[in-house]
Amino acid sequence: MLNVNIRNLEDGVLLRCSGRLVAGEEVSLLRTTASAYLDAKNLILDLACVSAIDGAGLGVLAALQGGARSTGCRIQIQHPTARVRELLELTNLDTVIEISPSREFSEICEVLRTRQAQAMASCAR
């Protein structure tokens, strides 16, 4: 089952997806929901809570990118899980759809920034 929560942003729309993005009702739900917002400036798909994606799910992402290109909409995938990111890379979808770092990567970077700032502060004393 796939759930899609919609959040309007100042310059676009955020679709937070959770569940499985697989053939059937799930792919149809994302296609229908996202297609309704292809006239937005930006369409962000948050896939942090997507536990599985199959060929149909990858296909709908590719189709959405094609539709977005024709309307001038920018699609971005945000926070993909490691497995979803791997499949996007294997299918080369990462070369046509902008992908932001995973949540885990962002958290690691923040920890490193904090540690570096603490180390710099202790050196300044």
How would you portray this structure in words?
The structure is a single chain. By secondary structure, the chain is of the alpha/beta class. It has one domain: STAS domain (Transcription Regulator spoIIAA), CATH 3.30.750. 47% of the residues lie in helices and 30% in strands. It is built from 4 helices and 5 strands. Strands 1-2-3-4-5 form a 5-stranded mixed β-sheet, with helices on both faces. Helix 1 (25-35) packs parallel to helix 2. The model has no long low-confidence stretch (mean pLDDT 89).
Please summarize the sheet with the most strands.
5 strands, mixed
Based on the coordinates given, report the CATH architecture: 2-Layer Sandwich
| Amount of helix | 40-55%
Indicate the radius of gyration in whole angstroms.
17 Å
Our count of domains comes out at 1
Helix tally equals 4
Instruction: Report the CATH topology name.
Output: Transcription Regulator spoIIAA
Mean pLDDT: 89
The H-and-E topology, N to C, reads as EEHEHEHEH
CATH class: Alpha Beta
Structural class: alpha/beta
Strand portion: 25-35%
Write down the overall geometry: elongated
